[in-house]
Amino acid sequence: MPTCRDIPPEKWAHATRALVQFFAHRYTCDDADDLAQDTLEAIWSRPDYEFKSEDDLMRVLHAFANVVLMASRRKSRKRIAGSGDVEFAAGPDYNAFGLTSVEMSIFFDQVMKKAEVELGGRDLEVFRKRDEKDKGAAARELGLRGQGHFAVALHRVMKKLGRILGKDARGT
Questions:
Q1: Which of 24, 59, 81 is the last residue of a domain?
Q2: Is residue 89 situated within a structural domain?
Q3: Residue 4: closest CA among 42, 48, 55, 58
Q4: Is there a contact between 150 and 126 (Cβ–Cβ < 8 Å)?
Q5: How many domains does the chain have?
Q6: What string of DSSP letters covers 104-156?
Q7: What is the pLDDT at residue 89?
Q8: What is the spatial distance between Cα 172 and Cα 143, in angstroms, rounded to a whole number?
């Protein structure tokens, strides 16, 4: 069975071009060459890796390339999230669902008022307790059997509130 050292350089050159093309089409960024080199490095770092035949090289490289691609995406997500960019920071210019932070707080105030008017009794209490950390204690206070029952009740209340808000948005 051939190892990495037994495969001719022409096949490695072809594999390198194929990897660059693979990354360029799946990962729209400028480092397709770097990711291809990382993939080749990953397979060359295992001198004991044996192929069934020389034709298996591309299948094995494709599998290694998927692993390298996933690792690169995880790294870039962490780098973006940890960079402190304005788009991730909540501030006066923060924009979610087309609303600025001031508009968002006004919207939530209106939702709370609508919930207090439209939801009755137990539904309103479930809605008010949605942000409590100890869901089990909230469930016991409401007379529910446990966290699961609280989650189901909250889901139903949120669906009901969504229907109410949707009805107002449509003007019907």
A1: 81
A2: no
A3: 48
A4: yes
A5: 2
A6: HHHHHHHHHHHHHHHS-HHHHHHHHTTT-S-HHHHHHHTT-SSHHHHHHHHHH
A7: 44
A8: 35
75 & 103 share domain: no
User: What angle is formed at CA 1 by the lines to CA 69 and CA 44, rounded to 5 degrees?
Assistant: 35
User: What is the CB neighbour count within 10 angstroms for residue 111?
Assistant: 14
- CA angle, residues 108, 168, 161, in degrees to nearest 5: 55
| In-domain check, residue 110 | yes
- Choose one of 28, 54, 81: the last residue of a domain: 81
User: Is there a domain that residue 166 lies in?
Assistant: yes
Residues 125 and 142 sit within 8 Å (Cβ to Cβ): yes
- DSSP SS3 for 95: strand
Residues of the chain with pLDDT under 70: 27-30, 78-99, 167-172
Structure confidence by residue, pLDDT tens digits, 13-45: 888 899 888 888 875 566 788 888 888 888 888
